[in-house]
């Protein structure tokens, strides 16, 4: 603490400061009042602390955002890699498993005996079909005649022995995709196959 200084008297010591009654005499020699330095220092310290905290929080937030962005980016890359790997595996599996080849269609048997019957009122249908079978070696025609009825609508290749199923299907295919069916009642004709010509053949 500073000691009080003694100054020699001067002409102002007798005059009241301010010239008013009750004013202090010799006030000009009083020690100057201390400034509010402590308050200012505290204010500066508080502001500095707030700025520091704000900077730390900002850096933490930026770091967190960067971490989240990096994690999301890594997840996207992992998903893309997994999808590409799955597609590659699927492609490899597809390449390793070729599609099965279709079964070959049965070939006609030129030695199969054939009966050709006309199931319509149109003359010459059975003879024409018999000639076609013979000319193309689709079978051995042994009999050409009329069917039991003349109202047959659809041409068919009929077999009465299950062993002739493939031969019947092959002959039906080359005759234009007609149907083939099993029927024991045609066994009396004594041939491997019976072609019953229907009205559909008459319009061809």
From TrEMBL:
Key words of the record: Membrane, Transmembrane, Transmembrane helix
Where are the membrane-spanning stretches? 40-60
Residue ranges annotated for the LytR/CpsA/Psr regulator C-terminal domain, each copy included: 112-199
Which Pfam family name is an example for this entry? LytR_C
* Low complexity: compositionally biased ranges: 80-97
Q: Does the keyword Manganese apply?
A: no
Positions of region (Disordered): 80-109
Q: Which branch of life, at top level? A: Bacteria
Q: What is this protein called?
A: LytR/CpsA/Psr regulator C-terminal domain-containing protein
Write the lineage as a comma-separated list.
Answer: Bacteria, Bacillati, Actinomycetota, Actinomycetes, Micrococcales
């Amino acid at each position: 603490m500073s000691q009080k200084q003694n100054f020699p008297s001067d002409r102002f010591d007798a005059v009241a400061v301010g010239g008013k009654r009750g004013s202090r005499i010799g006030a000009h020699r009083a020690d100057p009042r201390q400034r509010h330095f402590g308050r200012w220092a505290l204010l500066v310290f508080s502001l500095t602390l707030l700025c520091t905290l704000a900077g730390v929080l900002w850096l933490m937030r930026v770091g967190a955002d960067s971490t989240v962005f990096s994690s999301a980016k890594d997840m996207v890359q992992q998903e893309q890699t997994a999808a590409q790997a799955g597609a590659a595996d699927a492609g490899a599996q597809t390449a390793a498993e070729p599609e099965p080849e279709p079964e070959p269609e049965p070939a006609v048997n030129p030695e199969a005996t054939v009966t050709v019957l006309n199931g319509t009122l149109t003359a010459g249908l059975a003879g024409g079909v018999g000639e076609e079978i013979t000319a193309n070696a689709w079978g051995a025609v042994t009999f050409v005649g009329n069917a039991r009825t003349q109202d047959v609508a659809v041409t068919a290749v009929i077999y009465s022995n299950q062993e002739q199923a493939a031969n019947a299907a092959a002959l039906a295919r080359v005759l234009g995709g007609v149907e083939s069916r099993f029927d024991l009642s045609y066994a009396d004709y004594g041939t491997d196959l019976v072609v019953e010509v229907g009205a559909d053949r008459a319009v061809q």
